[in-house]
Amino acid sequence: MAARSDLNPAPWRRPFIRWLDGVEAGWSVPLLLVSFAAVWTAYLWIAYAGSGLHPDFLETWTLGRHFAWGNPKHPPLMGWVTGAWTQVFPSTDWSLQLMAMTNAALALWAVDLISRQFVTGHKRLLVLLLLMLTPAYQFHAQRFNANAVLLAVWPLATYCFLRAFETRTAIWAIAAGLAAAVAMLGKYYSVFLLASFALAALAHPSRRAYFTSASPWISIAAGLLALAPHLYWLVTTGAAPFGYAMAAHGGVDLPTSLQDSTSFVAGLAATMSPPALTWVLIAGPRLRRLPSDFVAMVPGLRLLFYIAIGTIVLPVATSLTVGTDLPSMWALQGVFLFAVLIVCGTSYPIERFHTVNATVLVVGIALAAVVIAAPLHALYRNSHGYEEGRNLYPQIAGEVTRLWHELTGIPFARVSGDDALAFATAFYSPDHPYYARPFAKQYTWPVPRKTTLEHGWAGLCFHDQPECLAWMDQTAARAGNVVRHEFVAQAHLLGMPGVSRRVVALIVPPQAAQADEEPGK
Known about the structure:
Elements: H1 2-7, H2 14-21, H3 28-47, H4 55-63, H5 77-88, H6 93-115, H7 122-132, H8 136-140, H9 150-167, H10 170-186, H11 191-203, H12 207-211, H13 215-237, H14 240-249, H15 254-283, H16 290-295, H17 299-323, H18 336-344, H19 352-384, H20 393-408, E1 414-417, H21 419-428, E2 434-435, H22 450-454, E3 457-462, H23 466-479, E4 483-493, E5 496-508, H24 511-517
Parallel strand pairs: 1-2, 1-3
Antiparallel strand pairs: 3-5, 4-5
């Protein structure tokens, strides 16, 4: 049936076939990626209407407000990207949602750079379509944080390493080193990708030619040079991110690590199950050629195979040895390797019939998400809310800003308290106050310094957060002259009232404002 359809396609298939024929002309892949980013940005805009951004995203925006070579929690790349984006685009929900989906589209573009080294025509599109059937490039990508920023960086680093390994030229060696450094600046978890590069090179039949050339040593030098400012920051600040990583994710006993490792592999398998099932339907009885295709795998794909295995085995081995947890979301940026290997490793042509069907499936899912799932999600969350209270963020930020202006008559400058509320207030308040708690003490509830309070400050807690409220009482005792205000914030969607929650705000007016008020008393 597939062969007959290719010879005499149905009228509705012909526009899709013209699109498939435009791959090598250079317009089909960009059209796919731009459409992908636009449709899924629309999904996010509708699904989260009346809600705020995820706290992870708001934290990333907060980090991007000042350029720094590092911060006590994660490497700086996610903050750099967000800071650069908001130099061009406004700090609004739709803008940052577009940034997240642009990052996902760039990730798929980088994957296509790898695919085109091995296949041409619509097989390149098939790789991307299969990846679009995973949740990695939509739902994982929309929470732009240290994990999501790697979606684009890992395939780009892999492409540069592949070219450096095959060509052994200085330009690609430098590119590989720089891309590897960028990956490390995204998240230290990328050490598993770099280690997989090294192990793949050692296992490859061309290892002697590669290691006796200047290419690996140029890559190492370029990478270390690019990382030098961040390494200096680590040395001079006590390597705080490593302390955070071990405090947040270390100290796990062997049975728990074993359970987490099993869940890690199972989670990745579940992520790849939709494209795997789709591929089974496409390949059909030709799946029996898989062993022979594996034996006949070209050298470049064999290098990618070793890298793919390394990105799974090395984290598991480390987790079991060191004793850490291991969420599968940490490795989602590497699933592209398996899609590339499966599609590009086939020795047989794929009929356009199957690629058209995969396109219709991807388009159908995207349209159903935008037209059906997104409105239903928005309606559900308006009445049921989120644990972190994100559908109340704009209202809370607006109310505390109004109160601040009423008390002080000057712009709102500093905020802390519950982290999600503080990040949200910094983002949604028209004054964009700064997050006042040092990131190094983000989880220890330190009382603000006296100088911070003297310059004016506000803290926010939900009424059902006893630890936050106890911290607020300690802060009030130190500050002395404070204004405590409780109010109820309620979500609204298209005029429909939604979930509500009580909020406590503690405002310490700046001393200058207090002095101005005294004569009128």
